[in-house]
Amino acid sequence: MSSAASMSKFLTQVKVTMAPFAPASKSSKIFLSRIITNDAIAANPTLKIVTESHADLNKPPVINVTYKDGKTLQLQTGDMKVNDVLRQVGKHARKLQEKEDASA
């Protein structure tokens, strides 16, 4: 899956919980910036994006993803690079894309 826009087609909800000014939240913030684009919104206008912020700099940032088939994924992204986050989220989305391509 080459882009967050094509990946977002297979997501129903993305929930990000983080301390926005904590250095550990960098990957979560960049992930959000890749998911909230015009292309991603055009690919899936019903995608629900929820952000929750808190002031606890020691609490790890968490991304919860719900896919169209009901599967959920929870990532603690404090030690992850944004490409690793995108790869993890995109892994199941690629499976859904392959399933859709096979049935077409």
UniProtKB/TrEMBL annotation:
<dbReference type="Pfam" id="PF10780">
    <property type="entry name" value="MRP_L53"/>
</dbReference>
<dbReference type="InterPro" id="IPR019716">
    <property type="entry name" value="Ribosomal_mL53"/>
</dbReference>
<keyword id="KW-0689">Ribosomal protein</keyword>
<dbReference type="GO" id="GO:0005762">
    <property type="term" value="C:mitochondrial large ribosomal subunit"/>
</dbReference>
<keyword id="KW-0496">Mitochondrion</keyword>
<keyword id="KW-0687">Ribonucleoprotein</keyword>
<dbReference type="GO" id="GO:0003735">
    <property type="term" value="F:structural constituent of ribosome"/>
</dbReference>
<protein>
    <recommendedName>
        <fullName>Large ribosomal subunit protein mL53</fullName>
    </recommendedName>
</protein>
<dbReference type="InterPro" id="IPR042776">
    <property type="entry name" value="Ribosomal_mL53_fung"/>
</dbReference>
<comment type="similarity">
    <text>Belongs to the mitochondrion-specific ribosomal protein mL53 family.</text>
</comment>
